[in-house]
Design brief:
Helices cover 43% and strands 30% of the residues. By secondary structure, the protein is an alpha+beta fold. Strand 2 and strand 3 form a beta hairpin. Helix 1 runs antiparallel to helix 2.
């Protein structure tokens, strides 16, 4: 079965500006959420998450990349990510 890949770019993960003091705490929280997502999605998919603080907007953005083999699998991964960030 052929594997496909997709990317989801998420901006503005927090509603207010992140202070320098909050940066590490918020970053660790985001990474913990996406580690949970990775565990839910399972090891058979390739799933990666890159997160950075946008300096001028003082808000985090994340780029998620994942592989899937069919539309149902992609829908499930998307739903897991959506539920984790809302």
């Amino acid at each position: 079965m052929k594997t496909k890949t997709n990317k989801i770019h998420i901006t503005g993960l927090y509603e207010k500006e992140i202070s320098i003091e909050e940066k590490e705490e918020k970053y660790n929280h985001i990474m913990a959420v996406f580690e949970d997502v990775k565990n839910i999605v399972g090891d058979k998919q390739s799933f990666s998450c890159h997160t950075e603080l946008h300096d001028s907007k003082k808000s985090f953005w994340t780029l998620i990349e994942y592989s899937y083999s069919n539309d149902e699998e992609e829908d499930r991964i998307y739903q897991v990510v959506k539920e984790a960030i809302t």
